[in-house]
Amino acid sequence: MTIKLDRAIAVGTPLPAREFNVDRKMLVMYCGACGDFAPTHWNERIARSVGLPDVIAHGGVIMAKTLQAVTDWVGDPGAVVDCRAQFSRPLVVPDDDVGAMLRVTGVVEEKLDHQRVVIRLNAESGGQPVLSAALAVVRLS
Amino acid sequence: MTLNRDFIGRTLPPGEIYEVSREKIREYALALDDTNPVYLDREAAGAVGHSDVIAPPTFAHVVLFRLGGWPLYDPDFGKQTQPVCVHRLARVVHHRPIQAGDRLVLTTTVDDIHDIGPHEQFVLTSEIAAADGEPVCTVVSHIVSRGTAAPKGVAR
After folding, report:
1. Is residue B151 part of a domain?
2. Is residue A19 included in any domain, yes or no?
3. Domain count for chain B
4. What percent of chain B has pLDDT over 90?
5. Partner-chain contact A78 B91, CB within 8 Å
6. Does the pLDDT value for residue B11 go beyond 50?
7. CB-CB: which of B32, B88, B89 is closest to A30?
């Protein structure tokens, strides 16, 4: 389902909260699709050798799944004109059938000119934020 | 080993062209378990005003990994072969969506390299444009090279 936005949308409007599974299969597929084969995203031995508890998700995976909360809401992903995030904590993806659960919330924070709005985003896993200063600027239709 | 700060301000001009295909967009979206029809179906993309399927907002990273090895793999840059580099911040400004059929070129600039405690951070700006010069998107990446900063003197 998509929601057609309009100019009347108010500051403070929340986006539907979302939960996304990030599992090992997604990381392997993302390695191939993106071309980022850094071993910390698929090799536990190497991840542990550099001080990580286990394999971690690509920053691009975290950012993409967080933005999906926006693009599913707005319908047309082409409406996203600016997006940014700081990766504040690794998203550890255990080798089990569940992986990590990424919980994403967002709220319309500000209205800009040219029918654009700023959406402040939060992404957390296990009660800990994995992104900070995450936002998307969306052009409304 | 520290990163080579002579790279600050250097720019690598466009080289190869990246040709965006519908199948690559599909592969990327499905890897992310994102089945938005605007990524997968020309009719759905057309219904919201795009002339072909468009790519997810983070697709620029595919272009960066295909064309953007510089300066990480330049031996003079000094990046260690151990996986010590982690992505700290990403920003993508879209002048328009990337879409199937695009022929893209990349220009990369090293904006800064500085210490953060025991680590170093380098800042890259990657301008992705159509081969005819039309700006498409700008990617800013802050990447931390863990533990590679020069020692800050001896504690007594």
Report:
1. no
2. no
3. 1
4. 78
5. no
6. yes
7. B32
Report DSSP state, residue B50: -
Structurally, chain A folds into a number of domains equal to 1
Do A108 and A12 touch, CB atoms closer than 8 A?
A: yes
For residue B103, what are the CA distances in angstroms to B21, B33, B51, B99, B132?
Answer: 10, 26, 15, 9, 9
Residue A63 per-residue DSSP state: H
Nearest to B66 by CA among B111, B21, B30: B21
Q: What is the pLDDT of residue A107?
A: 98
Residue A79 to residue B49: CA distance in whole angstroms: 11
The reply to whether B69 falls in a domain is yes
Residue B15: domain span: 5-145
B56 contacts B32 by C-beta, under 8 angstroms? yes
ipTM value: 0.94
Q: What is the pLDDT of residue B83?
A: 60
Quick: pLDDT tens for B37-67: 999 999 999 999 999 999 999 999 999 999 9
Arithmetic mean of pLDDT, A21-37: 97
Which of B32, B36, B91 faces A65 most closely, judged by CB atoms? B32
Cβ contact B56–A64 (<8 Å): yes
Looking at every residue in chain B, the average pLDDT score rounds to 92
- Within 10 A of B51 (CB to CB), how many other CB atoms are there? 11
